[in-house]
Write a structure and sequence with these properties.
Layout: E1 2-6, H1 14-28, E2 32-37, H2 43-48, E3 52-55, H3 66-81, E4 86-89, H4 92-105, E5 109-113, H5 121-125, E6 132-135, H6 138-147, E7 155-157, H7 165-168, H8 173-183, E8 190-195, H9 204-217, E9 221-226, H10 232-241, E10 248-252, H11 258-263, E11 266-269, H12 279-286, E12 291-294, H13 301-307, E13 311-313, H14 318-330, H15 332-349, H16 352-369
Parallel strand pairs: 1-2, 1-4, 2-3, 4-5, 5-6, 6-7, 8-9, 8-11, 9-10, 11-12, 12-13
Helix pairs in contact: 1-16, 3-4, 9-14, 12-15
Length: 370
């Protein structure tokens, strides 16, 4: 089967990570996979992995942008040279493009909803939800049923999944030592870490504000923040204002997260309010890190509530966050027990193999009914 995976861009982010993981595994299973997206930092990797890339101007959040029409024209030009059998769209603008192409070319398409969206006029008049729609968590499924009135027969619940094997293997000691030195993490420091886009909706400032209280409980505690974004400078200023600039280490965007995770004694999960899941959370769980999470929104915390993993605190409660992190830093037995439970949950419920099996079943259902 030739499958066109459509997304907005190929820069770092949860949707991009999902599309790449899905595409790699589908290719390994014998499918021809083409990724249609605007440029991004992962674009050069695709050819080396045998994944075709059709570059289209979709890097916009406006579903009525002329870029969407231009992307449709460009995709149709590509498809005249290499027909596809099915389209899988992952963002709102790519869903609009997929709906347009599918209607004109008579192709089946499926839309994955990676989060929550407002019931604006465009989405109500032109839902673009595909013949079948994938929800990445139960809260997202309920959102589709209740807010957008999709019939239950159209929606399939397929939680994200990852390959746990790379995170279960021991990180390279030399790479870990180099990263520790590069960031200036002192030997013997207890590392509290997070992986997130540095945007206001993530609430990373709450984690930095909690650090002085964490250090009262564990004086060797340092904070490692993996990721980048528009809030980096304000967060650096905040650390300086709080007198913890020397203990807050910004790693920027890393090509892989396994080494960084191996340095973390506690992983703090900071979801955005509209986030439907959290791949960084699954990676930390697979890496056997004890988890502390901020309960923001209903999508991402569902993973923890559903599995009984980790400690969860409310947004803005800096003292509660510090106390939860401090519990793991001070009680090694508790941290080890919770880390093992987190890893087991990923293997049982959130594996990449399970996700691909269920996604292929949706594809077969679409092709059979088309």
């Amino acid at each position: 089967m030739t499958i066109l995976q459509l997304t907005t861009h190929l820069n770092a982010g949860g949707v991009t990570s999902h599309v790449l993981a899905l595409s790699r595994e589908l290719r390994a299973r014998g499918h021809r996979v083409i990724i249609g997206a605007d440029a991004g930092r992962f674009q050069e990797d695709l050819a080396q992995e045998g994944l075709a890339n059709w570059r289209v101007p979709l890097q916009t959040s406006n579903e009525f942008s002329p870029q969407v029409y231009a992307a449709v024209r460009q995709l149709e030009w590509f498809m005249r040279r290499e027909p596809v059998g099915l389209i899988h769209a992952h963002t709102r603008v790519s869903q609009v493009a997929a709906a347009w192409i599918a209607r004109r070319a008579g192709l089946p398409y499926v839309a994955t909803w990676h989060g929550f969206f407002r019931r604006n006029l465009g989405r109500l008049l032109w839902p673009c939800t595909g013949r079948l729609t994938i929800a990445i968590s139960e809260p997202v499924r309920q959102h589709l049923l209740q807010e957008f009135r999709l019939p239950p027969s159209q929606v399939r619940l397929i939680p994200h999944g990852i390959d746990p094997a790379p995170f279960e293997a021991a990180a390279d000691a030399g790479e870990a030592a180099r990263l520790r030195e590069q960031l200036g993490l002192p030997p013997g420091a207890k590392v509290v870490g997070t992986i997130a886009r540095l945007v206001a909706s993530k609430g990373i400032d709450q984690l930095i504000r909690s650090l002085p209280q964490i250090r009262q409980r564990e004086p060797t505690a340092h904070l490692m923040i993996v990721g980048d974004g528009e809030e980096r400078r304000p967060l650096e200023r905040l650390a300086t204002q709080l007198g913890v600039a020397a203990e807050v280490h910004f790693a920027g965007t890393l090509p892989e997260t396994r080494t960084a995770l191996s340095l973390m004694d506690v992983f703090v999960f900071l979801p955005a309010h509209q986030e439907g899941f959290g791949l960084s959370l699954l990676e930390a769980m697979a890496g056997a890190r004890p988890i502390v999470a901020v309960r923001r929104g209903v999508g991402a915390p569902w993973v923890l509530d559903h599995s009984g993993v980790g400690l969860v605190v409310e947004p803005g409660e800096t003292s509660a966050l510090a106390e939860a992190v401090g519990r793991y830093l001070q009680d090694g037995e508790l941290a080890c027990r919770e880390a093992g439970r987190a890893r087991a949950v990923v293997n049982e419920r959130f594996s990449l193999r399970r996700m691909i099996d269920q996604t292929e079943a949706v594809y077969r259902e679409l092709m059979t009914s088309h």
